[in-house]
User: What shape does this take?
Amino acid sequence: MNFLNNIGFTNNTISIFGDSIIYDNELNKIYFTYHKAFFEPNFKNEMLSITRERFIPADFFNLINPLESAFIYEVYFFNSFLDAMAFYQIKKNISFNHALFVVTGNNPKFSYIQYLKKDYTNLKKFYLVYPNSFYGKMLDIKIACYLKGINNVSFILKDNILTVYYNSQSVSINRNYVTLSMIRKALNITLPYKTFKSKIAKSYFEELILNK
Assistant: This one.
């Protein structure tokens, strides 16, 4: 795991996620083996080339604490496994003793949230930890709507103007000013979910690299 150490991950963080990480020295690649894959009876792998800047999305749940589902009360959503690891390491002041880390990839589905709520019935808090970018904010909005049971929201981006359609409503916003809070107010829907954004980088993984 020298590569993970070299980019800033501690041995403690690697050990927490260690069951999901395979390093291939010959191919110079990292594989993430997920504990639970959607709609598949066997494990599902994500392959990440060390030289790549973008991560191949995958749909999986990673339980960082081996607790029964009844004792899981919080969920943190990410689009990248490495971002989840970086967030865990950077946010040392947060207790994750009853938390579930969910990596949705870049194209989350409404069915994922249905599966989540069916399997984990005592969830009380939801945290959106997507990148601090336009696309990351779109993921915030999509997951927040899904959590509220809203699956009929659609988006069209044209000439830097994002138009959001919901039921018979629509709202148009310059892409530079799109936030979950703004969408909530514009559509008059309650989306009381907290977001985490790195203050110095586009993602927590990038922040980890900057601070190593």
User: Anything to note?
Assistant: The longest strand covers residues 153-158. The chain has one domain: 2-210.
